[in-house]
Amino acid sequence: MQEFFPGISKIKYEGTDSKNPLSFKHYNPNQKVLGKKMKDHLRYAVCYWHSFKGLGADPFGPGTIIREYNNSSCPMEVAEMTMHAAFEFFTKLGVEYWCFHDRDIAPEADTLAETNARLDTIVKLAKKLQDDNGMKLLWGTTNAFSHRRFMAGASTNPSPAVFAYAASQVKKAMEITKELGGEGYVFWGGREGYETLLNTDMKREFDHLGQFLNMAIDYKKKIKFTGQFYIEPKPKEPTKHQYDFDAGNCYSFLQKYGLANDFKLNIEANHATLAGHTFEHELEFCVANGILGSVDANRGDLLLGWDTDQFPTDIYDTTKAMYTILKDGGFTTGGLNFDAKIRRQSVDPVDLFHAHIGAMDAFARGLKNAAKMLKEKRLAKFVKQRYSGWDNGLGASIEAGKEDFTSLEAHTLKHGEPKVESGRQEMLENILNEYI
Ligand code: XUL
Ligand code: CO
Fold this sequence. Notes:
Layout: E1 12-13, E2 23-24, E3 32-33, E4 36-37, H1 38-42, E5 44-47, H2 48-53, H3 75-93, E6 97-101, H4 102-105, H5 112-133, E7 136-141, H6 160-179, E8 184-188, E9 193-194, H7 202-222, E10 228-232, E11 241-242, H8 247-256, E12 263-268, H9 269-274, H10 279-288, E13 292-296, H11 315-327, E14 336-338, H12 349-376, H13 378-386, H14 393-399, H15 405-415, H16 425-435
Parallel strand pairs: 1-2, 5-6, 5-14, 6-7, 7-8, 8-10, 10-12, 12-13, 13-14
Antiparallel strand pairs: 3-4, 9-11
Helix pairs in contact: 3-5, 5-6, 6-7, 10-11, 11-12
The structure holds D-xylulose (XUL) and cobalt (II) ion.
């Protein structure tokens, strides 16, 4: 088989003294942290769309990145070469998981039936390559946002025929995800939103989205697919108003439409910041509500207002994220999927390695920092103390439902002005810095 990343051998852990850019300085897959191997905490996944199908195109110009596996005029030959290139990359990098959209792995043909036949061919190859290389599928998903039929949405499209097309596509994507042993399935509402209310029946669109996801649950049961369903919030882009705005919005949507027991969330760092939140805010909200599922690990740019999907390198971000994830007990079905793309000037195959190595080391450092923070409990102790008034006396009585406005008024009249206490933010920030 042709090598698509020639001259690059398996990336090894060499420790912090190494000056070899093609080595891990912190990610040591079998090293134990809090009694569990790093690789099992982090569950890294490479995403197919950015890493193998994204070639550096932006609104001002086509792709800049030329890859050997695209060197054919036959679309299925390209699909097969790309799959081989992807598995060569996964194994050289040393990740155990990957993620894909249906249309990433096989291009659409003229009819749905032909498109599905193409998927079957490519899934057979993917299954063989997974088995040969000990690779697993973190999650699969559907691209129901690129084709022009979906320009006004998929399940929220004004046309029932488009709703039906989207359902057929998700049906097939769930089947192939199951076939490949996928541990999850993601619903990102690509164009589920709107540009102007002048042409939009918002209530109907929300109802249709809820109905669509309930149909997906029914089909999941029918085919006995046991992977976890996730919704991935994003506030804007491509539509001006996306219906799955942020974690809070998704959670109330799931509850209203009776979906809360069947879905968790896939939190993407750059989507959190687009929503005006921090990455760790979105994760913490999920933990507080028992709905943290998986993570699309990337970062945005403070100075740009769109989804730049850069590889994560900020140790504060990775530390705070891993702190929240570990507090929640860690991933079960989910993992860290690098939904990130190299910059369009990073045209060499080796750049894809540098990007992933840096991101994997950044999260490995985050994991080690967070584990130490958890073990030493300095931050947790402060928080516990700050809320200790609720552990007995008046606080415990309120939490137990034994008080009402009249009794609380009597308490206040008797005890007078409450004592104010410092939030100690600066001290806590200094403590956090000790771990970075
Ligand atoms: C888009 C995005 C998607 C989803 C999968 O911003 O993040 O790639 O992760 O459809
Ligand atoms: Co994503």
